[in-house]
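Quick one, tokens below. Sequence please?
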């Protein structure tokens, strides 16, 4: 199985009080409506609602909150595109399928096993896990290996906070993520296109980088199933396939973990998968990309535009060999 290039296919809470307020807000929102509406702290939500033309704009793309140090100010992709143009092979290989088919995924109750090279392995309920951390917005570029890109307003917490909470042993050098494996809920798993469960991984220093993020929402709502509910990884300087969806297990390891696309086609996909316009995919150029919603292609930037933040993680490494 391989990816299809598009040509061929169709605020951080400022203090403890705000953090608590946010948690309460989330708890109530989830309990009562199944949605999150408290983006960017309760203050910025009020500002958004007051300044936006529609409730939708208040939540998506209409945010006028001050940008954080890791946010891009580029125009955000529409919520419609973010949630209907997806790669989630557990629900089929066509971009439109996940939105149509992922209703079978049951995201509550949901537990995540935290294990491996940690002080004390544990299984934790997703709502408990997300209550451990202040939730924040991150507006990131996402560049798919297929040559398209989006700008997505994620909502969640830094992966580093979770890794620290897991209390790594001195042997922990990598982190592995495992997605749900349940063909009853994920009918695409019966279609045999990839090995299941979908697995991904990072070096521990990559996981600890402040850009690495665990998303539980988009634009102020809980993640729609097709975007990887209830918990997904976001690593904006890497190709989108590193952003594993619907995670049920997070394991710290001493050796480099196996990753789905590298297992599937090691000549085309590597462990690192850093966005690199100079290293082409064997079947297409990576020099440019099409931003969803725009007509013309734009140049792809090294590390997807995050080189200043992350290039030092790879100093001395041959990025052609470690693709
Ligand atoms: N996670 C799982 N579990 N299964 C998948 O098929 N596809 C990956 C990644 N995470 C995938 C996955 C790919 S190829 C991309 S580009 C992104 O999810 C797409 O995320 P989006 O649909 O939210 O834009």
């Amino acid at each position: 199985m391989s990816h299809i290039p598009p040509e061929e296919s169709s605020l951080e809470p400022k203090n403890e009080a705000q953090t608590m307020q946010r948690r309460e807000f989330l708890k109530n929102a989830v309990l009562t409506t199944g949605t999150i509406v408290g983006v960017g702290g309760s203050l910025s939500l009020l500002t958004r609602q007051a300044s936006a033309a529609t409730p939708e704009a208040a939540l998506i793309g209409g945010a006028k909150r001050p940008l954080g140090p890791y946010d891009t100010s580029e125009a955000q992709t529409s919520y419609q595109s973010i949630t209907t143009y997806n790669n989630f092979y557990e629900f089929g290989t066509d971009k439109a399928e996940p939105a149509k088919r992922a209703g079978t995924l049951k995201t509550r109750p949901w537990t995540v096993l935290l294990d491996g090279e940690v002080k004390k392995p544990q299984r934790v309920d997703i709502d408990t896990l997300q209550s451990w951390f202040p939730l924040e917005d991150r507006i990131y570029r996402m560049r798919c290996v297929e040559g398209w890109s989006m700008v997505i307003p994620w909502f969640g917490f830094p992966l580093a906070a979770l890794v620290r909470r897991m209390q790594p042993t001195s042997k922990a050098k990598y982190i592995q993520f495992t997605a749900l494996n349940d063909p009853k809920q994920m009918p695409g798993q019966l279609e045999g296109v990839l090995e299941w469960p979908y697995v991904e991984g990072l070096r521990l220093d990559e996981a600890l980088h402040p850009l690495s993020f665990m998303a539980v929402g988009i634009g102020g709502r809980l993640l729609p199933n097709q975007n990887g509910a209830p918990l997904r990884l976001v690593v904006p300087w890497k190709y989108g396939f590193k952003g594993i969806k619907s995670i049920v297990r997070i394991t710290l390891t001493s050796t480099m973990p196996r990753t789905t696309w590298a297992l599937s086609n090691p000549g085309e996909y590597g462990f690192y998968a850093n966005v690199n316009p100079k290293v082409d995919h064997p079947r297409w150029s990576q020099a440019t990309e099409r931003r969803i919603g725009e007509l013309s292609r734009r140049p792809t930037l090294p590390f997807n535009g995050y080189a200043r933040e992350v290039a030092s993680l790879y100093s001395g490494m041959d990025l052609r060999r470690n693709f």
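Residues 86-90, 144, 179, 198, 227-228, 240-241, 243-246 surround MTE (CB under 6 Å). The chain has ten helices and twelve strands.
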